[in-house]
Amino acid sequence: MDRILVLVRHGQSDWNLKNLFTGWRDPDLTPKGVEEARAAGKRLKALDLQFGIAFTSVLTRAQHTLKLILEEIGQPELPTVRDLALNERDYGDLSGLNKDDARAKWGEEQVHVWRRSYDIAPPGGESLKDTGARVWPYYLFNILPPVMRGEKVLVAAHGNSLRALIMALEGLTPEEILKQELDTGVPILYRLNADTTVAEKKVLKG
Ligand SMILES: O=C(O)[C@@H](CO)OP(=O)(O)O
């Protein structure tokens, strides 16, 4: 039996383009982001996967990406669950600020720690560890069961909520997850073993 899980970060958002901390704010995709999402759909279509269920966050950029992928693969009516457990890491007080302005104000090093450290949260926001504390149980109780039943599962979410998920899925250490960057609109296909560990990982880049 195939146990297939596909993770995809949303296409470029308006605030990715403007270089703003986004978190739980809700910008839509740019035209480039729309293209990235459609291209992701085309790459998945070429694999001829019939998905059984999709999961996404409550944020527009992830839902829009999912909608475009589902159109491309010819499954626009796929049952979809939306949950804020999959939302982007909450950037707290940094939300809406320009990333270069933040570096000028607080310094390169501090901003890097806020963006990529495992357990240091930006002021008023979540660390990756905090994000994992909501993503991991959601994965275990909601996403993993259909995968293990053989339904192919598609998850459209965000850079840091997916980094948290990947950390658990691949058993990465806090040091290893620091270096993991996810491209917008690039699906990652996992095939799982019967014991839920990863048998195979493919990054579906154009
Ligand atoms: O702004 C955000 O919410 C995220 C993702 O775009 O940014 P970062 O690259 O700092 O994790």
From TrEMBL:
<feature type="site" description="Transition state stabilizer">
    <location>
        <position position="158"/>
    </location>
</feature>
<feature type="active site" description="Tele-phosphohistidine intermediate">
    <location>
        <position position="10"/>
    </location>
</feature>
<feature type="binding site">
    <location>
        <begin position="88"/>
        <end position="91"/>
    </location>
    <ligand>
        <name>substrate</name>
    </ligand>
</feature>
<feature type="binding site">
    <location>
        <begin position="159"/>
        <end position="160"/>
    </location>
    <ligand>
        <name>substrate</name>
    </ligand>
</feature>
<comment type="function">
    <text>Catalyzes the interconversion of 2-phosphoglycerate and 3-phosphoglycerate.</text>
</comment>
<dbReference type="Pfam" id="PF00300">
    <property type="entry name" value="His_Phos_1"/>
</dbReference>
<comment type="similarity">
    <text>Belongs to the phosphoglycerate mutase family. BPG-dependent PGAM subfamily.</text>
</comment>
<keyword id="KW-0312">Gluconeogenesis</keyword>
<comment type="pathway">
    <text>Carbohydrate degradation; glycolysis; pyruvate from D-glyceraldehyde 3-phosphate: step 3/5.</text>
</comment>
<keyword id="KW-0413">Isomerase</keyword>
<feature type="binding site">
    <location>
        <begin position="115"/>
        <end position="116"/>
    </location>
    <ligand>
        <name>substrate</name>
    </ligand>
</feature>
<feature type="active site" description="Proton donor/acceptor">
    <location>
        <position position="88"/>
    </location>
</feature>
<feature type="binding site">
    <location>
        <position position="61"/>
    </location>
    <ligand>
        <name>substrate</name>
    </ligand>
</feature>
<dbReference type="InterPro" id="IPR029033">
    <property type="entry name" value="His_PPase_superfam"/>
</dbReference>
<dbReference type="InterPro" id="IPR001345">
    <property type="entry name" value="PG/BPGM_mutase_AS"/>
</dbReference>
<protein>
    <recommendedName>
        <fullName>2,3-bisphosphoglycerate-dependent phosphoglycerate mutase</fullName>
        <ecNumber>5.4.2.11</ecNumber>
    </recommendedName>
</protein>
<feature type="binding site">
    <location>
        <begin position="22"/>
        <end position="23"/>
    </location>
    <ligand>
        <name>substrate</name>
    </ligand>
</feature>
<comment type="subunit">
    <text>Homodimer.</text>
</comment>
<keyword id="KW-0324">Glycolysis</keyword>
<feature type="binding site">
    <location>
        <begin position="9"/>
        <end position="16"/>
    </location>
    <ligand>
        <name>substrate</name>
    </ligand>
</feature>
<feature type="binding site">
    <location>
        <position position="99"/>
    </location>
    <ligand>
        <name>substrate</name>
    </ligand>
</feature>
<dbReference type="GO" id="GO:0004619">
    <property type="term" value="F:phosphoglycerate mutase activity"/>
</dbReference>
<dbReference type="InterPro" id="IPR013078">
    <property type="entry name" value="His_Pase_superF_clade-1"/>
</dbReference>
<dbReference type="InterPro" id="IPR005952">
    <property type="entry name" value="Phosphogly_mut1"/>
</dbReference>
